[in-house]
Write a structure and sequence with these properties.
By secondary structure, the protein is of the alpha/beta class. It has 3 domains: about 5-130, Rossmann fold (3-Layer(aba) Sandwich); about 145-240, Arc Repressor Mutant, subunit A; about 245-315, Winged helix-like DNA-binding domain superfamily/Winged helix DNA-binding domain (Arc Repressor Mutant, subunit A). Helix content is about 50%, strand content about 15%. It has 14 helices and 10 strands. It has helices spanning about 15-25, 35-40, 45-55, 70-90, 120-130, 145-150, 160-175, 185-190, 195-210, 230-240, 245-260, 265-270, 275-290, 310-315, and strands at about 5-10, 30-35, 60-65, 90-95, 110-115, 180, 215, 225-230, 290-295, 305-310. The chain has a 5-stranded parallel sheet, with helices on both faces. A 3-stranded antiparallel sheet has the order 6-8-7. The chain has a two-stranded antiparallel sheet with strand order 9-10.
Length: about 325
Amino acid sequence: MNPKVFVSHASEDKDRFVMNFAARLRAKGIDAWVDRWEMLPGDSLIEKIFEDGIKNAQAVVVVLSNNSVNKPWVREELNAAFVKRINSGSKLIPIVIDDCAVPEALQSTLWERIKDLTNYDAEFDRIVSAIFGDSLKPALGKGPAYAETILDGVPGLDVVDSIVLKLSCEYADELKHHFVGDVDEVLARAKLLDISEDQFFESLEILNSRYYIKGGKVHDGTDRVRHFAITDFGLEQYARTYIENYRQLVRTVGLELLNSDERDSTSIARKLQVSLLLVNHIVSSFKGRGWIKVVESNAGDFNYHVFQISPELKRALR
């Protein structure tokens, strides 16, 4: 349905503004009610204005000018408009066309000021939008991909830092080593999630300062981390957050060391069909606790050979 709008105004403003303005409203599909069009000789002023005009209006436009602000009749229409807005939710839209004082009754209402009566397209569009209830606010766009990623965050890290750590560990897993010498590959994967280059290198700095990684820089003028190793702490936080049944995997690796004849991380990873990086990390954590002694080998894939197991490991697995 076409919205109906009652235009309250002083007769002196009809020809210089109101009639053209009302015609433009009607051209936009708005049923503008102006007394010159609606009232005929013999019509009751009160019935036509208050019953036919204001009562059925979805909005009341009050044209404020030097001619209208002190008119008793306009003030009466304005009071009726307030009653209408309170009782049935119609909109009150004041338009100021002169350098006049806005009545106190409208001080708390947002009005539209028109400075040039021959050129007011922008103001007119805002008035039409208000009548139809449209917003000129741009529609919300799609957020960055990283913000829509369903992902648990690493405790103590924000979402971007968590994703950069995850991507780094996944790339290190492919390399089967905790050292990442090609940050550009990780950066390329981060960009697929709408993480910018500045965000990425900022995250590397954060991860480095909090010892999730141990970074190295080259003297290229950027002072950015260009290669890094993922620390045991960083791998542990990654594994606890993103590896399903990680605690059970730790126990399984420990049992393999106790019960298997092949006590090297490569053989265990192959047998369990799990990440060599994670197995190496778990074995390294056992070593750090003093539960085992190992020999490190870097012939091909990095590998730990376990040659001594403490009773403490057996007790920890009970």
